[in-house]
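Let us work through a complete example step by step.
Step 1: write down the sequence.
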Amino acid sequence: MKAANSVFSSLGTTIFATMSALAAEHGAINLGQGFPDDEGPDDVRAAAAKAILEGPNQYPPMMGLPALRQAVAAANKRFYGLDIDWQSEVMVTSGATEALADCLIGLLNPGDEAIVLEPAYDSYKPVIEAAGAKAVPVSLEPPHWSLPLESLAAAFSAKTKLIVLNTPMNPTGKVFTRAELDAIAALLIRHDAYAVCDEVYEHLVFSGHRHIPLMTLPGMRERCLRIGSAGKTFSLTGWKVGYVTGPAHLLQTVAKTHQFVTFTTPPALQSAVAFGLAKDDAYFAGLAASLEAKRDRLAKGLAEAGLDVLPTDGTYFISADFRSLGFNGTDDEFCRDITMKAKVGAIPLSAFYADPAKAPQHLARFCFCKQDAILTEASARLKAYTKGQGA
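Step 2: predict the structure and record it as tokens.
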């Protein structure tokens, strides 16, 4: 039998599926996978239900409902001062992961190189490689995950087509600074390269930090594809509604990729997301404040359990260094141990690297977008575990 696609056939079961199965097997609280355990805003869900009943429920336009594309353009102006033509510069996708695939496949040719900042969301590398391009990793260093400018500059070459920039960053919770973004922009201009900007956590920023889209910087308007997610903005991850904002000359090709991947996205959900994006400032501020409080709750619990907690300024995730507990194994072994013994699931951070063997082996990622009672109970279980370990 002839072999299937070599990139995807070589992939194993994801660490998220593995750890979730282990958590279920042992009755553990699953702080591994990043999805909220509430059902999202009542009014946004009601808008979707109304749209389903009233219709239409047939294929919407391939680029997305005009109402949602207009809402995305308006949100770009409202939050970032970007003037966007909704007709030629906005496209709706079936989730941000599809948007990422559309952008990468639409831009990359065989032999191109794409720079990926690690630790990184796990979909980037296989899609880059399936397009026939090479993923070039540049590792950020814990605990503050500052951008290594010399290593980044050295990663650029004549073959560099683009960089994948995730800010706020999963799994680290890092929000890139203006100085770091300026440095990236200068390299993109110098090497005539593009940026695929994964900004799905754009409204989940804490501690007085501010999300700055790379697209807003001088010279970047024509080089950036900016990806957003209704799933993250409205705690509706199962809806799988994403959107891409970018210059028409890039989006035209990305749209052709989308056309042959999903073609379109459920119209009722698009209509409801358009309604949601027009919500007042109090909603967006309240979302960030609520998650910041949850971050602080879990951070306190992890610290009281004896772990060294790394800073996190955005996203759903917080990382902790377990070496202070005297645990001598790898991060994978630690996460399995706490899942089975403490009944709390987490994800080893080395799973977010192209080569886990070269990654830090002492960090675990925990998800805090859960109910307060769940976070409190998880903290109590970890304290009991570390007390039993003599930490």
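Step 3: interpret the result. The domain at 42-281 is CATH 3.40.640.10 (Aspartate Aminotransferase; domain 2).
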